[in-house]
Amino acid sequence: MRISTKKLQELAIFTTVVTGAGVGTMYYLMQKFAASEYHQLAVQKLEACSFAMESLGAPPLKVYNLRLTDKQNYIDQHWAQQIKIPVRGSKTGGYLYASSHRDTAENWRLKQAVLKLREGQTIDL
Q1: pTM across the whole model
Q2: How far apart are CA 83 and CA 43, in angstroms?
Q3: Closest CA to 98 of 120, 66, 69
Q4: How far apart are CA 51 and CA 93, in angstroms?
């Protein structure tokens, strides 16, 4: 049984497209999972701090996706430690580091939030 080179090329292209679409969809869905309550609590804390917002040059505040490959991010059922959230304002950007825990009522509580700007300045929220 012979298969033409053209058919093999079509199969390779189809497989590449389907795999790429699958990986892209998975990444998108994981970002939605990662941006849960502990993520929102940290961003709300940042938005409530006028000094930090002024230092960033916000509003507008741009919050980027978590880097899922970053080994510093640790999330399990009860802890979200050292979550590194990229943020940017009109002046500069940086990372919002947050630690949260889940209480007995299954609600997330923000334990610590720190903004580290590119220039090296650290703002404890």
Answers
A1: 0.72
A2: 11
A3: 66
A4: 14
pLDDT in tens, 7-31: 999 999 999 999 999 888 887 776 6
Residue 10: domain span: 1-34
The length of the chain in residues reads 125
Number of domains in the chain: 2
Residues 23 and 55 in one domain: no
Place of tokens 């903004």: 115
Taking only the tens place, the pLDDT of each residue in 27-55 is: 777 666 556 788 888 889 999 988 999 98
- Phi and psi at 65, nearest 5°, equal -65, 150
Residues near 72 by beta carbon (within 8 Å), at least 6 away in sequence: 82, 84
Residues 40 and 28 in one domain: no
